[in-house]
Amino acid sequence: MTLTERNAIAAPAEGLFIYNLDSKCFQYYKGTAWSGCLGESPTNALECSSPASNGGYAIGTPPLTSANTITVDVLVNSIEAYNISTNTVNGYSFSASGVFSAIGLNTITLSGSGTPIAEQTDSFTITYTEKGDTCNINIGVTSVLSSCLAYLNAGSTTDGIYSVDPDGSGPNPAYDCYCDMTNDGGGWTLVFNHNTAGGYWTNDAEASEFNVASPGLTTNKYSILSKLDEIKSAAAYEFRIYYPTLGLRNHWSQTFDPRTSASTIRPVTGYNAINIDMTNNSWGRFRVIRR
């Protein structure tokens, strides 16, 4: 009924329920006056500012793994089952189902499946099936990933030479490096290898970058220490140094840049021991590998 018709009701009964055509809402009589408009119960809804992709996406890699996900926030007002998924684009897709865990903001992880086919930017539509909500997210697929760790996260588990491009579409070209995918969790980049059978380093410049085109454990003098800042995935440098003759290794992190100069502090600034086999200075032949 209209507002005029409502007001014309003589002595309305307490609890009388009407639909107000003028206000487009329900109201009831409280005994002394009409209530305000009754709001709809809030529903669950996607938060479209929240979607984020995780993991590396490259053609020629194994099928997507547990590291390849999309996360999206849902504002939950009612605990109920959900099905959230994407369309299939370029050979892969994402999905999740379950029951919301709590009232409020819930972060839902959609697991990836399939294998990227072409190098391109893929536009996905995230659909909340029960409510019809949709959000969008773009994921870039490359032919070269940024690091050994990115290849590991994309499903590669074999030691060997990989092409990496740390700055992606930036000005620096991709280059080959040796990736250790099996020791201490894998995802390590060989940045330095020295076998004294190949001679000694003549100066700091040579030790910083040498035989860049020949990465591998059989290259007696190899260094890409000049690329440390491109390769590292955190604020600190994380190193793993290996002494193959004895099968011993040290694994640690530090904030001190080893290329600047000899440190006057022992241990160096920001040193954090992770797994230490050797405590003396007689390293001999060694390989330095870092994530």
Automatic annotation (TrEMBL):
<keyword id="KW-1015">Disulfide bond</keyword>
<dbReference type="GO" id="GO:0070492">
    <property type="term" value="F:oligosaccharide binding"/>
</dbReference>
<dbReference type="InterPro" id="IPR002181">
    <property type="entry name" value="Fibrinogen_a/b/g_C_dom"/>
</dbReference>
<keyword id="KW-0479">Metal-binding</keyword>
<keyword id="KW-0106">Calcium</keyword>
<dbReference type="GO" id="GO:0046872">
    <property type="term" value="F:metal ion binding"/>
</dbReference>
<dbReference type="Pfam" id="PF00147">
    <property type="entry name" value="Fibrinogen_C"/>
</dbReference>
<dbReference type="InterPro" id="IPR014716">
    <property type="entry name" value="Fibrinogen_a/b/g_C_1"/>
</dbReference>
<protein>
    <recommendedName>
        <fullName>Fibrinogen C-terminal domain-containing protein</fullName>
    </recommendedName>
</protein>
<dbReference type="GO" id="GO:0005615">
    <property type="term" value="C:extracellular space"/>
</dbReference>
<feature type="domain" description="Fibrinogen C-terminal">
    <location>
        <begin position="139"/>
        <end position="194"/>
    </location>
</feature>
<dbReference type="InterPro" id="IPR036056">
    <property type="entry name" value="Fibrinogen-like_C"/>
</dbReference>
<keyword id="KW-0430">Lectin</keyword>
